[in-house]
Design a protein that fits this description.
Elements: E1 11-12, E2 16-20, H1 25-33, H2 52-64, E3 68-75, E4 80-91, E5 96-104, H3 113-128, E6 133-139, H4 143-151, E7 155-165, E8 172-181, H5 182-195
Parallel strand pairs: 5-6
Antiparallel strand pairs: 1-2, 2-3, 3-4, 4-5, 6-8, 7-8
């Protein structure tokens, strides 16, 4: 199966629903987006103020252009929209994809919502699309995200030196690269993550 950017994929289980990001989600997510710490490690038009509608519209346009597939995240347990995540850098010939741009409101962090979302996205990538690897990455100073990625089965694979400006405003910081392979998913990572949900 090939990732079809025009298809409306909905990934869901008992806890989470990932639905294609649309302009209607601006209103659903704008109050969460005002939690400014969400945007600490983001680059570009991604702050929660006046640029937030542009951020959503840019993501939708990237899907239209076949570059990214963004989702709005709905927490079924709380009956609320919780944040957003997306696939990007899909390479059909190489059978790879990246997962990222994930953010959630503070009330949803540490609630296993992220684990459910990652499970659904990994499951889709490996079991539906048949891909060989899913790549992830984070600013080296973003310890919370790095820990969360490792908790869902990602392995640290390396780093890109001086990839980002340091959030301290002095010098540069590395990007840490992580990933999950299809063989790992089917040999235990998928089962282990499912047990954590």
């Amino acid at each position: 199966m090939t990732l079809d950017f025009s298809a409306n994929y909905v990934l869901q289980n008992a806890r989470a629903r990932l639905e294609p990001l649309q302009e209607k989600h601006i209103a659903e997510l704008e109050s969460i987006a005002k939690e400014m710490e969400i945007w600490t490690y983001f680059l570009g038009r991604s702050d929660g103020g006046k640029n937030f509608p542009h951020y959503i519209k840019d993501a939708i346009l990237s899907r239209k252009n076949g570059k990214e597939y963004p989702f709005a995240v709905f927490d079924k347990q709380n009956g609320k929209y919780a944040g957003s995540t997306r696939f990007f850098e899909y390479a059909k010939d190489l059978e790879t994809i990246r997962l990222g741009y994930s953010w959630y409101g503070i009330e949803f962090r540490g609630t296993k919502l992220n684990k459910n979302c990652k499970f659904l996205m990994f499951q889709f990538a490996f079991e539906k699309l048949g891909l060989e690897r899913v790549g992830l990455g984070a600013h080296e100073e973003n310890k919370i995200s790095l820990s969360a990625m490792q908790s869902v089965g990602c392995k640290i694979e390396g780093r890109i030196r001086n990839a980002f400006p340091s959030i301290t405003g002095h010098g540069r910081s590395d990007a840490v690269l992580l990933g999950v392979l299809k063989q790992e998913w089917f040999k235990g990572t998928g089962h282990q993550l499912k047990e954590k949900l």
